[in-house]
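The following block was generated as part of the benchmark described in Methods. Ligand: zinc ion.
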Amino acid sequence: VDSGIQASEKIFPPVLLYHKVTSVPELGITRTTSAGFRRQMQFLLEKGYKLHSLSGLADISEEASDEPNSSIKHIGLTFDDAYSSVYKNAFDVLSEFGFSATVFVPVNYIGRRNDWDPGRFMMKFDHMGKGELKEWISAGNEVGCHSASHQHLSLVSKMDRYSEIEGAGRRLEDLTGSKVNWFAPPFGWYDRHVLDTVQEAGYYGTAILRKRKTTVCPPELTLLERRTVYLADSFSMLQAKIDSGSSLYNIEQIRLGLIQAGSWGTVAVQALKQQKEKLYKSG
Ligand SMILES: [Zn+2]
């Protein structure tokens, strides 16, 4: 089985992950300021990078052999949670620079404020609405599915897992009139059950954070790692995430792994709390 998995694994260029693009301060470290985002895109453009949605990137990877202009470095660009701030502060920048991106949508929250991300001064954030998502797609961008309710998928029943993965994807397709090829699990957390369900639902691939060495991916499914951009990242750290020739590359990969391990600890505690609250409420 092992060799089959290796053989079918597609080679993907690096993929960046952003969340909010806003200058409104908050406790989270996954925010990028509006001006900072523009500067980062400008920096990548000047370094010869072209940023693509995941499906755009998959097309390019398949055509890579007859690419005439090899000086362009193609990488992927994604935004998790489909915050309105991405529409307000990143959309125009992408169009201006000729880039595209995939935004991962928690489908129950389309056009609504979030309540799944509590505790940060009780701040709530708007999500893109149906019209904004359609406009996003019309401009050459992509939407992916980020579950229905943004729950930690280790805590949902088997039936709910289907509605969070397959049902949510179908609803997103109906709503936008556009094919949904990619699923990104909330908090980047997955196990074999999640991957099997994603594959059975007919997705092309799953976009995660870091791969778990102990979880084997079904051979038909593409499992894609992404590198999170943090508020404090400098240009050299941004480049270290995507350029294996950078002297900081190995350090940055280790740092990304450590931050994820830390955030999974926090997420596990939050998830347990939520589950306890549910138990109390249901009696
Ligand atoms: Zn998320």
